[in-house]
Structures are given as C-alpha cells and as structure tokens.
Amino acid sequence: MRTAVVWDALEAALSGAPREVVDLGGGTGGFAVRLAESGHRVRVVDPSPDALASLARRAREADLDVSGLQGDVADLVDVVGAGSADVVLCHGVLEVVDPTLALDRISQVLRPGGLLSLVVGQRHASVITRAMAGHFQLARTLLDDPAPVDARTGRRFTAPEVTDLLAAAGFTDVAVHAVRVFADLVPAALVDHEPGAAAALVDLERAVAQRPEYLPLATQLHVLATRG
Ligand SMILES: C[S@@+](CC[C@H](N)C(=O)[O-])C[C@H]1O[C@@H](n2cnc3c(N)ncnc32)[C@H](O)[C@@H]1O
Fold first, then answer.
1. Which InterPro entries match (predicted)?
2. Phi first, then psi: what are they for 97, rounded to 5°?
C-alpha cells in the first residue's frame, strides 16, 4: 500500500529492455529484489553490513542475483563506476545525506539520458504529523528549517526544493508524484478489518498521485528525472 504509487511510476518507466540499476541506500533490498525479478541487473550500494546481509538472504531465497556493495554516497562513483547505470534509485536516503553531493554523485554514475528515481520525505506533512502528536515546538522548527531537526528522521523537502535541487544538478524532465497522502492518516484497524478497504485506499492514493494540489499533503514525494 505504501509503495504502490512508486511502483506504478517505476514499472511504467522501466518497461522494455533490462536495465543496469543502482539502488543507492537500497537497504535490505525491497525494491532491488523486485526489480531483479523483472529482469533488471541490480547493484545495491549501502553502508550498512546488516542491511546487505539481509539483502543477500532475500535474494538467495528468491533465487536471484543482486549485488550488494558496501559504500555510501561519497564513494558511489568509485564503487559502481562513472556512467555505468541506466537507472539510479535513491529512496529514503536524501534525508540523511548532503543532497547536493548525492545528486552530483548520482549524476556521475548515470549515463546521459539515464533515469533517477528519488523518494524523499515531504516537509508540510511532517509538520502536521508532529503537531498532531503534540510536538508543537518540533513542528514550528521544521516549518521553516530544511536542515535536520530530528536526527532519526533527518531532512524533509518541499516539492519546489526538490525540483530546484534537481535542476541545479542538471536533471531534466522532472515528474513529481504524491506518495502516502492518506495511508498514514487512516487508522490501521479500519484498513485491516473493513473488507475491500485496503484496495479502495490504494485506488484513492493512485487517483491523487499526479494531482499537484495533493503534493503538500503527501508523506513522501516520488520524483522521476532524467540526467541531462
Ligand atoms: C530509510 S532506509 C531506505 C531503504 C530503501 N532505500 C527503501 O526505500 O526501503 C535508508 C537507507 O539509507 C542507507 N544510508 C544511510 N546513510 C547513507 C549514506 N551516507 N550513503 C548511502 N546510503 C546510506 C541506510 O543504511 C538505509 O539502508
């Protein structure tokens, strides 16, 4: 439910020939293994040995070949090679690294015309979530401050901030989707116990994903962009 909108856009963009995919900060491989199942060649780069061990287990169980490489944003080019990727995934990572550095390294490993799939936390939804939980000072700080105010969750972005960062890094054809507009607001019991509710919620998320007026309400933004 939480990734349906991201998958829709990614699968449509990657239909056709198998691609060379690099999943930066791919963690335990939720996306990587599914892309490998679809026939793409996938390398996961992550600093966490525990995450890479889980990825290896997951890939083995699915009888798939997914490379797990220990590394981080700063040494991405050394780890995978310049111009070696058709597609780079960077999901849930830009929040905890220097975004300008990350986009520069991603741009270097993508071949010209290659695709970036980016998922980032969206700031306005974060402000509301914190306020609703009674963390008013934290909400107030996050309102104007794009830098991390919470070491656990890291930086949050607005849609214009992300598109500006991508333009500055030389990316073009930027498409932004709203992810998890409702999913985090609905009580889990309602979705779990009401027959048909989960499918109807996914349908609703899909219906608003490409409506710009819903971007400030989304927990996350999914962005597809092309390396110029
Ligand atoms: C929130 S998880 C996201 C995992 C996966 N991309 C997903 O969408 O399910 C963040 C991941 O970023 C990785 N990470 C943290 N610092 C990093 C860095 N400097 N460079 C690359 N990855 C990093 C973490 O180890 C973790 O696997």
1. Methyltransf_11, SAM-dependent_MTases_sf
2. -130, 175
Q: What's 220's domain CATH number? A: 3.40.50.150
Interval between CA 74 and ligand 1 midpoint (Å): 13
Per-residue pLDDT tens for 110-145? 999 999 999 999 999 999 999 999 999 989 988 887
Please report where in the chains the tokens 């991603």 appear, as a residue.
Answer: 106
For residue 25, report the distance from its CA to the centre of ligand 1, in Å: 3
Q: Report the nearest-CA residue for atom 3 of ligand 1.
A: 92
141 shares its domain with 197: no
Task: Give the structural domain span for 136.
Answer: 123-155
Which of 10, 44, 46, 80 for a ligand 1 pocket mutation test, highest count of atoms within 8 Å of Cβ? 46
Residue 151 — pLDDT band, cuts 50, 70, 90?
low
